[in-house]
Amino acid sequence: MANPAKKTVFAPWDDTNEKPLITFEGVTKKFGSFVAIDDLNLQIYTREFFALLGPSGCGKTTLMRMLAGFETPTQGRITLAGQDIGPVPPNKRPVNMMFQSYALFPHLTVWDNIAFGLRRSDMPRDQIPARVEEMLRLTRMEKFAQRKPHQISGGQRQRVALARSLAKAPKLLLLDEPLGALDKKLRHDTQFELMDIQEKTGTTFVIVTHDQEEAMTVASRVAVMNQGKVVQVSTPDRIYETPATAYVADFIGEVNLVEGVASPNPAGGYAIAWAEGQAPIVSACDKSIAQGARVSFAIRPEKVRITPDRPEGAQNAMQGKVHDIAYLGNISTYHVLLPTGQIIKAQTANSRRVENREFTWEDDVWLSFTDTAGVVLTE
Amino acid sequence: MQLRRTFLILVPYLWMLLFFLVPFFIVMKISLSQVALAIPPYTPTLDITQGWDGLVKFFSQLSFSNFQFLTTDDLYWRAYVSSLEIATVATAITLLVGYPIAYGMASAPDEWRPTLMMLVILPFWTSFLIRIYAWMGILGREGFVNSTLEWLGIIHEPLTILNTNWAVFIGIVYGYLPFMILPIYAALDKLDVSLTESAQDLGCTQIKAFWLITVPLSRPGVVAGCFLVFIPALGEYVIPSLLGGSGTLMIGKVLWEEFSSNRDWPVASAVAVVLLLILVVPIILFQRNQQRQQEAEQ
């Protein structure tokens, strides 16, 4: 029986017949002796909302500026819809960019800012007003059309910048830290608005951000970058659940990393010896890892159960003392000190009021998790 | 607190009163007097010892006849018009020379900027008068320009540059160039690079982005620079008298001649008062430009 759910899933990267909209083929970018992008390969597909995530200086902005045409690769090729865009100047590319500073023209009204790109295009003059109105409606800025950029709020400026960069209906829209200047609440609302607009217009979005939560929220796929290289490209849930390296695991969300030596179990999976006098961690990992290889075992705090007694039949269990409690309102993170000196974080939802909570500082507790809860990382 | 504020405001006002308003009223008074063979060379002079009668007599002798005289001799209005022309043309040339320099400075790498700025300000370390004298040597018939051009074989007869209006233009452009460059540089320096980049991103060529974004946004600097050159150039005396010829008619030179050669202090003062009235217009416009710019920045 065919799986009907599969049809609605948007996953062109899994479809071998699908041609990517953008490909990076062995792209290297150097600034003097500094290597900003190091032999990078990447495919981005039509209608994707693709996030470039990484710490500052990881090369994500350089990557974006190469797509916009403000930087040219030192080596390698970038293609857009099959065409090598290396020699194409920024004004000739079907690519628009929303700048981090928004870069709204301060001497022009909101209306003229949005019309700016259209006036430079081959769109007939009499069709421009209709397109500008459409963009104003899309971003709910109709009332502010005649204002100058300094007369509107930060959130409104962000929307004007978005409207201006979408007005020419580019094949690809680049967003450089688009929500960086907004406060947290507005940023959350705007993330959903961005996704709505992306869906409505069907434009391919590439967003640069250092905020992992933002990348996870908006993106169809996330590329985690570090020092000019893409460490992992995958959907947000895969990045979170099965990080490729300890770097990715640590960069995205909170994680416990336990180092140890792996040895295959006869029944499948691995046993990881991680400390003297402690039972090895059992993990049902299907990667092939050599006997005696040094590995990191990564497990998310919310996948670690915390109980007052040793739970029956737990595949992995360890005893410790509550060292610290981070109370975040909806959840609490317990920092549990093991006899080995390591600290393991365990997270639970605060279903009870805080004064009735089960554990407090210096309590003896048991931590437990299943053999599928964590991942074994070799890098 | 209140006292301190009053004091702070009082200092510049007192300065203005002592060094601008009082001298201005003295000049104004002289312009209403008559020339006389005396020391000082005009009448009437105020003699307070005569009391009320002296005061009445003093005011009854003041008249606007010098200002009327300015309208009867066409030398004066021709000098005013010619000054306006020369100052306008010189300002335009200074802008054409200064803008590219300011633009180059603003787009230079950060480590170069202090050096470039230094080069612009460096001429101020030498006296203005000496620098203008130096141009006499450069522009003269036997000067540096002519000898170089002759040596290169471009000309065979020395060009007459010194003692023409050309020399005056060169002098004004040279002398006031920093006043043009600095405000334009300040305006360009503030511009966010991403503005021109986003204009390019939206379909402009680099040149078009310059015209549509950089030029309009640097306008306050251009306006400020033009006024800073135009206002002093209008009343310029040193440059036309050293570099200009007998045909160069500028009001600063006329004023000087009335004052020293003719020893006609009243007429010279009247010329100065009218010059000031002409200058008030661009000065007010300049102040409004500055104020608007400050408001826009807030």
Descriptive notes:
The complex is a heterodimer of chains A (379) and B (298). Chain A has 9 helices and 20 strands. Chain A has 379 residues and is of the alpha+beta class. Chain A folds into 2 domains: 237 residues, Rossmann fold (3-Layer(aba) Sandwich), CATH 3.40.50.300; 123 residues, Beta Barrel (OB fold (Dihydrolipoamide Acetyltransferase, E2P)). Chain A is globular and about 80 Å long. With 298 residues, chain B is mainly alpha-helical. Chain B has a single domain, classed as MetI-like fold (Orthogonal Bundle). Chain B contains 14 helices and 2 strands. In chain B, strands 1-2 form a two-stranded antiparallel ribbon. In chain B, a hairpin with a 6-residue loop joins β1 and β2. Chain B is globular. Chain B starts with a helix and ends with a helix. The model of chain B has no long low-confidence stretch (mean pLDDT 91). The interface between A and B is medium-sized, with 24 and 18 residues.
Summarize the structure.
Chain A is an alpha+beta fold.
State the fourth-level CATH superfamily of chain B.
MetI-like
What is the largest interface, and how many residues per chain? Answer: A-B, 24 and 18 residues
General shape of chain A: globular
CATH top-level class of chain B: Mainly Alpha
The third-level CATH topology of the largest domain in chain A is Rossmann fold
Low-confidence segments of chain B, given as residue ranges, are none
What is the β-strand count of chain A?
Answer: 20
End-to-end C-alpha gap of chain B: 26 Å
Oligomeric description of these chains: heterodimer
Low-confidence segments of chain A: 1-6
Radius of gyration of chain A: 25 Å
In N-to-C order, the SSE pattern of chain A is HEEEHEEEHHHEHEHEEHHEEEEEEEEEE
CATH topology of chain B: MetI-like fold
Query: How many individual domains of chain A?
Result: 2
User: Which structural class fits the helix and strand makeup of chain A?
Assistant: alpha+beta
